[in-house]
Amino acid sequence: MIVDRQGRRFRNLRVSLTAACNYACTYCVPDGKRLVAAQDELSAEAMVRGVAYLIEAAGIERLRITGGEPLVSPKLEAFLRGVSPLGLADISLTSNG
User: Fold this and answer.
1) In angstroms, rounded to a whole number, what is the distance separating the alpha carbons of residues 66 and 94?
2) For the chain, which residues make up each domain, given as ranges?
3) 92 in helix, strand or coil?
4) Are the beta carbons of 10 and 3 closer than 8 angstroms?
5) Mean pLDDT by 10 residues, the chain (97 residues)
6) 0.90 exceeded by pTM
């Protein structure tokens, strides 16, 4: 379990499907240069193993999927298939679309 100094328990986890945003919005990238995805990003399967570990070790109950535009990520389907049976109370997604 992860607890802060005020005794609050952390139950929420955010997972970004990519290390670099696939957009070049003026908010994040004022010069308009797109970020390049890292060559050594985790696979969907590795991210699922990490989420499963945090559920068991830290008591994570809710998951939010992020990462530029996660709906266009090639990892989304495999990641959702992997985390869906893990018994989370909520799985949600933040979209830029």
Assistant:
1) 5
2) 12-93
3) strand
4) yes
5) 86 87 64 64 94 95 89 92 98 87
6) no
